[in-house]
Amino acid sequence: MIASPRQSIYPSSAAPSALGPDPVPGGWATRIVSSSLVQLRHPARSLPSTLSYSRSPHSGPIPSPYKGNGIEYAESRPYLAGDEVRHIDWRITARTGKPHTKLFHEERERTSLLWIDLRSSLFFASRGSFKAVIAARAASLLAWHAVAIGHRLGAVICNEQGDQELPPQRHERSVLRLIGLLSHIIPGNTPSAENPLPLLEDSLLRLRRLSKPGSRLSLVSDWHPLSEQMLLQLRHLARHNELLLIQISDPLQYTLPPPGHYPIRDGQHSFMLESTGKAQQERYAEAFYSRLQHLQQFCHNHRIGFVHCSTSEDVLAKLFALFAPSLHSLAQRYG
Fold first, then answer.
1. pTM of the predicted model, to two decimals?
2. How many angstroms separate the Cα of 65 from the Cα of each of 177, 194, 224, 244?
3. Residue-by-residue DSSP string for 12-43
4. Which segments of the chain belong to CATH 3.40.50?
5. pLDDT digits over 33-43, tens only?
6. Using N-to-C axis directions, what is the helix angle for 228-240 and 197-210, rounded to 10°?
7. Given 3.30.9, 3.30.310, 1.10.240, 3.40.50, which CATH number is that of 18-62+109-331?
8. Of residues 105, 137, 103, 131, the one with CA closest to residue 118
């Protein structure tokens, strides 16, 4: 069950200790603070200049074949599903009897796009930091890295108040503008949508229109709910771009509290969460892991990088472990 901002899942007497240790420096577990995001400029420079999202254990062993949308011919290789028909190398195809496609040298100026889900329901955690705080930190680290290696940076922020779009630019100012937008999202100003699917589907469609072939896309969300239309948009994006999906979940989504009745409030409505026993807890956990495995398999099938992070985990360490295992320890200083 995804909770809403200002939501309580424990009796008021237990709430302060329920969050546990705060993995975000400065104690800002429940707020997106611009100063903490600006500081991520330094660890971002420690990441390799060329990141391969296909190094994710769930994205498959074959790296993305797309080398960019330049015009200088690089090489030809056997045709793969999803390659553009207009890039077929007809000469080699005729000689070998098997379809081949042309690859081109990547243009020097590449675009990195971020899609950040900051709906009201992500301003929640039963422990650790709010999902929205973790999403903002992951996006900021990737944004600083993109600018450091000369990429043009753009972003789409998904929120009930309406999508906020940052056109691609090649300046550090674009990161600061993004951080400003992230830190000014105020949960609760707009009620959570009863059915968030249209909002999410339209936002991904906006991202698809903004992206150009050969871009690097990083999408951060809890991916709940997840519709077939959203998966279709992701498939379209993955055909000609390099994708990374970051999923943020809360322990309450896969581990129910001890048996009892727990009040849930979102400022507008009150609910009662009933935890009965072991059998219910096992079914609850099984349902979550089934959805998680479905998303992992989807990413594997479409060569999309995938990272799962709990609200009680350090997302920086997760990203360093994926992109630069030898530099993993550096993330600990900033996480």
1. 0.75
2. 32, 40, 30, 15
3. TTTHHHHT-S--SGGG-SSS--HHHHHTTHHH
4. 18-62+109-331
5. 999 999 999 99
6. 10
7. 3.40.50
8. 131
